[in-house]
Here is the input.
Amino acid sequence: MLPRHLERFVWAPRDGVDPLLWPFAIPAVRQLISEGGFEVAPGVTILVGENGSGKSTLIEAFAAVYPRRGAESSSRIPVTGPAGMQEDSPLRWHLRAKTHRLAAPGGFFLRAEAMHGYLSQIDADPAEGRAWGDQQLHERSHGESFLEVLRHRFADRGVYFLDEPESALSFQSSLALLVILDSLRQEGSQVVMATHSPVLAALPGATLIEVGPWGMRQARWEELDLVQSWQGFLASPQRWLRHLMEITPSSP
Here is the structure.
């Protein structure tokens, strides 16, 4: 039985919850509210769905609530990931994390949109240089820098949150991330990730949650709308493009 440092996010509303307003009106969030929270499976949990379905809203709130501290204490750079953003939803204030009494303190929140600033922090700190091979992270490709952070900061047992990490990764780099995620699982960590990538969603043993107008539902990889759309497109891209061009009004 795989360990669960993080067992559940519990709905614990404060004042100011209007079910008609964002983010509480998002179907996935409405379902979380009606069910009193969100159960977190052992190993890797992957949220997939269209833009606007609420994946990132859930991930950022979950990452803000879990009390990860990181095993390192000497670094001046946050070892748990970039800080929250002003645009983050207020959902975090209405959740609390139910954790195991022996939950590991390790963890990281990798959010693609904030990683440029995080890498800049590391490059600007001379004390960090030795830990990163005395090479500026910004001198590497975006994908290489992402993978370097993943290898370096994902070394401790704990709970890891990733929001669309594939945005910086090639196909081969996505496969490298799969290996990292599987290693985390085998070493006793948990991962909660949002992705548009059918490659990352194919991780063996992952719990797949499809997010959409219906709320949240567990699915198998081959059942995901994401996978079926990619398979259909790759099988006959010209048919898809021809149909798309026919129904899309041409520019004046």
In short: The beta strands are 6-11, 37-39, 44-49, 95-99, 106-111, 158-163, 190-195, 207-212, 215-218.
